[in-house]
Amino acid sequence: MTKPEDQTADARKRVLESANRLGVQLNEQELERWMKSITEATGDSDIVVDKETGVFGHKVTMLDFDPQELARFRAIGKIVEFEDIPGVVETALAISGSAAQSKIQTYPGDCDYFERVNIIAPTRSEACQILSKLIRDKALNTLSGPNYQLIDVKFGAYPQKVIRGEHTRREGSPIGWLPDDIIASQIEVTDLEGNPLVITWDSVAQDPNWSWCKLEWIIADTIRGQLSNASNVVDVTWEAPDGTITALDGYLDGYFQEVYLDAESAPIFSKVVKQASSDVMDTYVAALENEVKKCIKKGKYLNYGKAAKRLYNIFRLNGRYEEAAFLRELFDEPTALLYQVHALMGTVQQARDNSSVFDIDSILNQTDELIVAAVKVLEGEEELEIVRHLLRLYRSLCRQESGTPLGSEVDVAQAEVMKIVNNFFYEKMTALPTIKAYIEGV
Fold first, then answer.
1. 3-state SS string over 26-94?
2. Long-range contacts of 288-293 (CB under 8 A, 24+ apart)
3. CA distance linking residue 308 with residue 292, whole number of Å
4. For the chain, what are the domain ranges?
5. What does the alpha-carbon distance between residue 61 and residue 317 come to, in Å, rounded to a whole number?
6. 356 and 66 in contact (C-beta within 8 Å)?
7. Using alpha carbons only, what angle is made at residue 46 by residues 110 and 322, rounded to the nearest 5 degrees?
């Protein structure tokens, strides 16, 4: 019988061979450390606590977290987090997505947070009322500050198919509230016949079909010296008088991609996740596979970089460590920097089009960094094309008054960058037969 350590060594050898064949640079010591750690990540509990820093999370997730970034995440977390209300609201704040994988994702996209909010109330209706006030108060209290501005809040769902501005919104889709909408506590839309409708904040709070809550800001990240998008996805539960805990959206999210920032929130976390179904990991992986389907479908949302991130999370959870080890190395490749460039171009646009907080110099400095990043990574015609679009964006920023939309400059530049990102990740992923077969199966 082959020993586990021999199986790990064989898998590591295959990853090295694949990487060399495909021209992917590997940190062999880090690869060996990760594959050894993940195969040994066993024990009675799947939650690991870092005693030095106080952070905790799933044992597989914790292998990818770099505590050197902790001060930054905690600083931004002070802006996005919800406060506890003794006896009424309990919270546990975590980082998620690429933020929780800072050891491998040198070029992360946005700064994503995830917060469990447990509301203690006599009835579900009262829990919804508390949540409604909690979300709106948080939005109003963080509309803007010296280094941040609220951009959007997802709360509630459209009660019917409506037309909002130039777009048709289907029944049940999340409602996006802009700052002015939140202040007014209502939005104005029309039905399909053109009749005016008013949707109020309070009316959607009691809708049993609402799906999720998400708040998004632009942050002037003083530690990294750049503008960033920061979001907080809120998973809300209601704790009834008999101690029963119910997810208000009907589904309790898994905990397989979160690093919680405060050890004092561990009791709340433990109490809530005990309610998760026994097949929570299978459900989580199935949801990721559905996301992969969306990312690799041809069209506007084609994104093989995002697909690679989803596949990495799938493979590291279902025991396909060889494929996971290969993918984690792709995120550190120079071309992966363009994934961040793509995200930051959108941040620049939002900062310029929607913000009164950030001055033009900080926005132009951010654009300078995007140009430098493109030159650093690209060469030849690709470099010329991307830099040309970024320079046009720079000139547009210089010409336009604050609040005047940038037009198509950002869309065109992002499309060119995404083309390169897609080609890179598609070429590398599908060159490994097992990953190619998995994508085709999905």
1. CCHHHHHHHHHHHHCCCCCCCEEECCCCCCEEEHHHHCCCCHHHHHHHHHHHHHHCCCCECCCEEEEEE
2. 288/313, 288/314, 289/314, 289/442, 292/439, 292/442, 293/442
3. 8
4. 1-40+278-442, 45-276
5. 9
6. no
7. 70
Dist. CA 425–CA 303, nearest whole Å:
9
Backbone phi, psi, residue 233, to 5°: -90, 125
CB 213 within 8 A of CB 138: no
Least Cα distance to 440 among 322, 292, 287 occurs for 292
Show the tokens assigned to 71: 């001060």
Tokens encoding 205 = 């709070």
pLDDT, tens digit (0-9, with 9 covering 90-100), for 162-176: 999 989 999 989 999
Torsion sign, CA atoms 207, 208, 211, 214: positive
- What is the tens place of the pLDDT at every residue in 268-291? 999 998 888 778 888 889 989 999
Instruction: Provide the H-helix boundaries in 318-408.
Output: 321-330, 337-354, 360-377, 380-399
Collapsed DSSP state (helix, strand, coil) of residue 441: helix
Is-contact 229 358, C-beta < 8 A? no
How far is 373 from 371, CA to CA, in rounded Å?
Answer: 5
pTM score? 0.84
Tens of pLDDT, residues 109-144: 678 999 999 999 999 999 999 999 999 999 999 999
